[in-house]
Design goal:
The protein contains five helices and no strands. It is mainly α.
Length: 165
């Protein structure tokens, strides 16, 4: 009995440790696969509040005046973004609390407010990109457009990779 138990125990421990190593490696590969390009990495973390230079401006030489204009533009929008995030968070909290005392009318009101906040955020991003492009020269705009296309291709490849796994 003792001769069977020890090899069985060793095999079990070995198989469990190998499985955990394989899972850790798989998780690490997933995290690093789509972010091998440094300039695309920041683009994947859109919900970060830290003001940063848009990834589509990577590799574009900006004048000091342009850098200052972009800095002012980014920092002027942060208070609005924070207010929207706080309001969205509060509304989602209220929506979760509705599960205790559900009311269709209240749920629709909260959903409409959330939709309005999301619409405003999308419009603000579009307006921000328009303002950024207005700061650039025609040559810089062309390069930025090419960078955006490369980012889209990268995102599509990332999505295909995630859907395949």
């Amino acid at each position: 009995m003792k001769t069977v138990f020890k090899p069985l125990l060793a095999a079990t421990v070995l198989s469990l440790s190998m499985a955990s190593v394989a899972m850790a490696k798989s998780s690490h590969e997933h995290k690093t696969h789509h972010c091998k390009q440094k300039e695309a990495h920041v683009y994947h973390h859109k919900d970060m509040l830290l003001p940063h230079r848009p990834s589509f401006l990577k590799g574009i030489d900006l004048t000091e005046t342009q850098k200052d204009q972009l800095f002012e533009l980014r920092h002027s929008e942060i208070p609005k973004m924070r207010a929207q995030i706080k309001e969205r968070h509060q509304l989602k909290k209220e929506l979760m609390q509705l599960s205790e005392n559900y009311s269709e009318a209240n749920a629709k009101t909260i959903a409409d407010k959330l939709a309005s906040i999301e619409r405003d955020a999308v419009l603000a991003r579009a307006h921000h990109h328009q303002q950024v492009f207005s700061i650039l020269t025609p040559t810089q705009r062309k390069q930025a457009t090419e960078n955006i296309e490369n980012i889209k291709k990268h995102d599509e490849a990332k999505t295909a990779y995630e859907n395949a796994s």
